[in-house]
Design a protein that fits this description.
Layout lengths: L1 E3 L8 E3 L14 H5 L1 H7 L10 H11 L4 E3 L2 E3 L16 H4 L12 E4 L2 E7 L5 E10 L2 E3 L10 E9 L9 E14 L2 E14 L13 E3 L8 E9 L13 E10 L8 E10 L3 E2 L2 E2 L6 E7 L15 E3 L8 E11 L6 E5 L5 E6 L11 E5 L9 E5 L5
Parallel strand pairs: 3-15, 5-22
Antiparallel strand pairs: 1-4, 2-15, 4-12, 6-18, 6-22, 7-13, 7-20, 8-19, 9-10, 9-18, 10-11, 11-12, 13-14, 14-15, 16-17, 20-21, 20-24, 22-23, 23-24
C-alpha cells in the first residue's frame, strides 16, 4: 500500500502535484535540470556552480541517465507508523545519557549507535545543503545467531545530531537494512526511508518523528544518491507557519544484471515539515552535516534492542561501506546564497562501540570509521556487527 505524503494537515510533508514526462531518447533526463523554468516548476535543485566543485559534480552526475521520474509516496515499512506510540515508550535520547560521546580536543568520538563523519558550520553560518552517495551493502547476521532477534542498520545523510542538546532535530534520508529469520532462513530486506527526528523530551514519541518509507526499490549493489536542503518555506505552506523546512531528493541507480536492465529512478524532490514536540515546533540549527551508519533504536521495546548486522559491498561482498561525494554547503540563513563548500578535510569521525560504559575493559568496536580517509570527499566504514 502506498500514499502521497499529503500536506501539513495530514502528513509530515508535501509533494509537487505536477509530474514531468518520462525521459526518452528525444527528451533526455538532463532537460529538466538544465532549464531554470523547469527546475522551478518541479522543485529541482539549481546547479551550485564552479565555486562548489564537489556539489557541482554531484549535481552533474545525479541528473545524467535518469530512466524514470517518480512522485514521492510512502509505503508500509518494518515499523508500524500509523498507530499511536505507547506513552511508556521513550526515545533513544532518553535511553542513553549521551548518545554521542564527544571529546573537546579530539576529532575522533565514541558512540553506542553511530559511526561516520561530521562537519560543522563556522563563522556564524548555517549548513543548508548536504549531499552523499553510497553502494547499498549486503547485510549479514553477526555474532550469536538467535532466530528470535532482528538485525537492523541504516545509512543516511542529514543535519544536526552532533551532540546532545535540548532542541535536537535531524532531517535525514537514507536506506535501512533489516534481517529477520523466516521460513527456515535469514531473510534480508532493504528500504529507502526519511524522517525529521526530534527529541521527545521525556514524553511519548509522536508518530510524526518516526521513519517513513518511500515507494522506491533498493537492493545490494545499487547506488543511492541523497540530498537534503534547508529552505525557508515551500509553495504549499506560508513561511510564517513553517519558517524552515527540509527539501529531500533521492535517486537509486540499479546496474544491469541477469534479472533486470539498468535503471536510474529519481524520486522528485519533496518537502517535509519540522514536527511538533511538547506543543512546540522544533527548529533545525544547521550546526552540523553528517554521513552516518547507525544502529537504530527499537522504540517499541527498548529492552530488546536491534542487533547490528555485518555490512559489506563489492563483488565479493568483502569491502567496507563507502560514502562518496561527501560535501555540505553553508549560507547565512536557509534560502540565502551559498557561502562555502565543506568537505571532510576538517571533520569529526565517530566509531560505534558496544553499548557498554565508556572505559569498560570489554568495550569493543562494532563499526569503525576507517583511517586514513580515502579523500576529502570519501571515507569508509567497517560495520562488523554485534550480538550485544
Amino acid at each position: 500500500m502506498s500514499c502521497d505524503l499529503g500536506g501539513p494537515g495530514r502528513c509530515m510533508g508535501c509533494v509537487n502535484p505536477d509530474m514531468p514526462p518520462q525521459p526518452t531518447p528525444a527528451t533526455p533526463s538532463d532537460t529538466l535540470f538544465l532549464e531554470q523554468a523547469q527546475r522551478r516548476r518541479y522543485w529541482l535543485p539549481d546547479p551550485p556552480g564552479a565555486g562548489f566543485p564537489t556539489l557541482q559534480d554531484f549535481w552533474d552526475r545525479l541528473r545524467s541517465g535518469i530512466t524514470e521520474y517518480r512522485r514521492a509516496t510512502t509505503i508500509t515499512g518494518p515499523d508500524p507508523t500509523g498507530a499511536p506510540i505507547p506513552a511508556t515508550v521513550r526515545s533513544a535520547a532518553d535511553l542513553n545519557d549521551k548518545p554521542i560521546q564527544l571529546g573537546r580536543r579530539s576529532r575522533v568520538s565514541h558512540s553506542p549507535n553511530w559511526s561516520g563523519a561530521s562537519v560543522a558550520a563556522v563563522d556564524s553560518s548555517t549548513l543548508t545543503q548536504i549531499v552523499g552517495r553510497w553502494i547499498e551493502p549486503v547485510s549479514q547476521p553477526s555474532g550469536t545467531l538467535d532466530p528470535a532477534r532482528t538485525y537492523r542498520s541504516s545509512l543516511w545523510i542529514g543535519f544536526n545530531g552532533h551532540a546532545a542538546y535540548r532542541d535536537a532535530a535531524m532531517p535525514q534520508i537514507g536506506t535501512l537494512q533489516e534481517i529477520v529469520y523466516a521460513n527456515g532462513g535469514w531473510q534480508p530486506r532493504h528500504w529507502v526511508w526519511f524522517e525529521w527526528w526530534a527529541d521527545s523530551q521525556g514524553g511519548p514519541i509522536d508518530p510524526s518523528v518516526l521513519p517513513c518509507y518511500l515507494d522506491l526499490p533498493v537492493q545490494p549493489g545499487d547506488t543511492v544518491w541523497c540530498r537534503v536542503d534547508l529552505v525557508p518555506s515551500d509553495p504549499a505552506c506560508p513561511a510564517a507557519t513553517f519558517p524552515h523546512v527540509a527539501r529531500l531528493c533521492v535517486c537509486v541507480e540499479h546496474p544491469a544484471d541477469a534479472a533486470s536492465p539498468a535503471s536510474k529512478i529519481l524520486v522528485m524532490p519533496f518537502v517535509i515539515y519540522p514536527p511538533v514536540v511538547d506543543a512546540v515546533r522544533v527548529k533545525v540549527t544547521g550546526s552540523t552535516a553528517n554521513w552516518i551508519a547507525e544502529l537504530p533504536s527499537n522504540v517499541w521495546n527498548p529492552r530488546n534492542p536491534w542487533l547490528l548486522p555485518r555490512l559489506r559491498t563489492g563483488v565479493a561482498s568483502d569491502q567496507p561501506v563507502t560514502f562518496a561525494h561527501c560535501a555540505a554547503a553553508s549560507a547565512r540563513d536557509p534560502g540565502a546564497p551559498l557561502i562555502a563548500e565543506h568537505t571532510l578535510a576538517v571533520s569529526r569521525r565517530f566509531h560505534m562501540y558496544s553499548g557498554l560504559p565508556r572505559g569498560d575493559a570489554s568495550l569493543k568496536p562494532i563499526a569503525t570509521c576507517l583511517m586514513p580517509r580515502i579523500s576529502d570527499t570519501a571515507f569508509a566504514i567497517q560495520v562488523d556487527g554485534n550480538d550485544a
